[in-house]
């Protein structure tokens, strides 16, 4: 198991490096294709996109991964019994999104350009959901090559379409181009699904009867997925409300719509993506940690569980601290290298130190889920989100521009990380 954890982590880190490098190229290509204004508009759509991505999978991939790693049920039944339910739920979500898109774009986001991109989000949901379920299956089996390869191929497809397709759509207007950016996910996720299916064992035969409802499995899956979804849903709802509250309050205190769109685009298009670059390492560590913690903790091997969690946090800090120092002292170098801009330098220098806590939040959250503390994790996320939302509203009233958003976001990071650390220490 020790060798599997290290091997899995190395595979995911290497794949993460490749995927992140491709993502950076995609980001550069996208920024240059649709400009800062386009990034600003896309940033307004992104919270809704993330919210519905959270809803469409319902935390099922993590639940599948946990159940498979614990060897409680037949693997095929674990995966297939939930598929009809989750697909029907996705159809329902698509209908909801199509109904609320006009209201979101006109009255809440106050930007008509976001209408078609919001509609396009609905079409991506079933593909993202199936891809996530398959990845959860392979994570549970501690097979990291299928997921790693599918992520790389997915990014390559996204890169090709961004470079070739989006500039052509700009001829028809910014709204059509951003709609294309969203719809690229349909093709890239479909390609990812095909790659994952290649690695499904050949001796597995799938029949229509395998998709039938299994009360025992569904109960176990939902007992894990609902709190997990609750945590993610709370975070996504907070991010969903973020541009709405920000736009409303800053407009009320005298900031122009153009200022809000541009500055919000800088933070979400340049500042956060740069600071989150090291997170692909911590994400790799977290994904490799899940089956290990689930298996060891369920077998009451608490000492080894504690050791692996400490190891994961240490690895995250070894990566996060040097990156933080670089972002603090030479952010201009990275902004110019990646995005060909200096926008956001002042933001990065101030908030970079707090992101050290964000880099260890992933392993702590995964540890709580693996230890069966998903409900406690959800409550921590809820309290952190309430703090963030209240601070965002109050601080924005003081007319300090985007600093209200940044202070609120950092407060959330600090609270949630300390909350999760407390519960992990308490249980071990």
Structure description:
The structure is a single chain. The protein has 17 helices and no strands. By secondary structure, the chain is mostly helical. Helix 4 (83-108) runs antiparallel to helix 5 (115-140). The two termini are 19 Å apart.
Q: Can you give me a brief rundown of this structure?
A:
The chain is mainly α. The protein has 17 helices and no strands.
Describe the protein's topology.
Blueprint: H1 2-57, H2 60-70, H3 75-80, H4 83-108, H5 115-140, H6 144-164, H7 166-169, H8 174-198, H9 215-252, H10 257-275, H11 279-298, H12 302-329, H13 331-339, H14 345-351, H15 355-370, H16 374-396, H17 403-427
Helix pairs in contact: 1-4, 1-5, 1-6, 1-8, 1-9, 1-10, 1-11, 2-5, 2-9, 2-11, 4-5, 5-8, 6-8, 9-16, 11-12, 11-15, 12-15, 15-17, 16-17
Descriptive labels:
single chain, 428 residues, mainly alpha, 84% helix, globular
- Low-pLDDT stretches are none
For the sheet with most strands, the description reads: none
The backbone outline, from C-alpha atoms, is: globular
The total beta strand count reads 0
Helix content class: over 70%
What class would the helix/strand composition place it in? mainly alpha
H/E topology pattern: HHHHHHHHHHHHHHHHH
Mean pLDDT: 88
Measured between the Cα atoms of the first and last residue, the distance is: 19 Å
Helix count?
A: 17
Strand content: under 5%
**What is the C-alpha radius of gyration, as a whole number of Å?**
21 Å
């Amino acid at each position: 198991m020790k060798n599997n954890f290290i091997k899995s982590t190395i595979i995911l880190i290497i794949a993460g490096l490749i995927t992140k490098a491709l993502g950076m190229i995609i980001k550069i290509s996208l920024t240059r294709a649709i400009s800062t204004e386009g990034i600003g508009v896309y940033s307004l759509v992104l919270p809704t996109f993330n919210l519905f991505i959270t809803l469409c999978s319902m935390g099922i991939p993590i639940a599948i991964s946990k159940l498979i790693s614990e060897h409680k049920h037949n693997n095929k039944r674990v995966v297939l019994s939930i598929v009809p339910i989750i697909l029907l739920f996705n159809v329902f979500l698509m209908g909801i999104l199509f109904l609320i898109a006009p209201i979101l774009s006109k009255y809440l986001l106050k930007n008509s350009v976001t209408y078609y991109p919001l509609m396009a989000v609905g079409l991506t949901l079933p593909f993202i959901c199936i891809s996530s379920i398959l990845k959860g299956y392979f994570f549970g089996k501690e097979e990291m090559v299928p997921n790693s390869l599918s992520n790389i191929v997915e990014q390559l497809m996204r890169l090709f379409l961004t470079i070739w397709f989006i500039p052509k759509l700009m001829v028809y207007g910014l709204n059509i181009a951003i709609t294309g950016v969203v719809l690229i996910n349909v093709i890239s996720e479909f390609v990812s699904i095909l790659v994952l299916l290649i690695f499904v064992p050949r001796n597995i035969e799938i029949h229509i009867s395998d998709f039938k409802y299994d009360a025992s499995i569904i109960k176990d899956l939902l007992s894990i997925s609902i709190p997990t979804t609750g945590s993610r849903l709370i975070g996504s709802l907070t991010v969903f409300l973020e541009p709405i509250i920000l736009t409303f309050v800053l407009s009320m205190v005298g900031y122009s719509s153009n200022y809000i769109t541009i500055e919000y685009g800088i933070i979400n298009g340049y500042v956060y993506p740069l600071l989150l670059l090291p997170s692909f390492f911590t994400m790799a560590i977290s994904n490799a940690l899940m089956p290990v913690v689930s298996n060891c903790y369920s077998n009451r091997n608490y000492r080894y569980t504690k050791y692996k969690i400490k190891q994961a946090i240490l690895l995250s800090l070894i990566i996060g601290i040097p990156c933080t120092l670089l972002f603090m002292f030479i952010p201009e170098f990275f902004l110019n290298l990646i995005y060909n801009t200096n926008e956001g330098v002042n933001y990065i220098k101030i908030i970079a130190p707090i992101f050290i806590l964000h880099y260890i939040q992933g392993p702590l959250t995964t540890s709580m889920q693996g230890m069966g503390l998903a409900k406690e994790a959800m409550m921590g996320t809820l309290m952190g989100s309430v703090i963030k939302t209240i601070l965002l509203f109050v601080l924005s009233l003081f007319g300090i521009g985007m600093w209200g958003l940044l202070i609120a976001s950092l407060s959330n990071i600090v609270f949630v990380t300390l909350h999760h650390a407390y519960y992990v220490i308490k249980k071990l």
